Amino acid sequence: MSSPSESSQASTQPPTLSEILPNLTSTDPNVVAMCLKSLKPILSEPLKEASAALDALEPLIWRDVEAARCMCNLLFKNQKLLKAAGPRLTPGIIKTLSSPCPSLLTLQNLKLLHLFAAFSSLPLTSPLISLLASYLLLPPTTKARCDIVKEGLRCCYALYSNESSRLEKEFRREMTVVGYAVTNLMQADLPENIKLDVVKVATLMPMEFAGFLAINGAVPSIVKCLEDVLVDVVEVKGGRATELLPILQVLKALCDAGARDAVKGLVFPGADVGGDDIDKNAVHPSDAPKHTLRCNLIKCMTSSDTNVKRLSAELLWSIMGGR
Question: How far apart are the C-alpha atoms of 218 and 206, rounded to whole Å?
Answer without folding.
Answer: 16
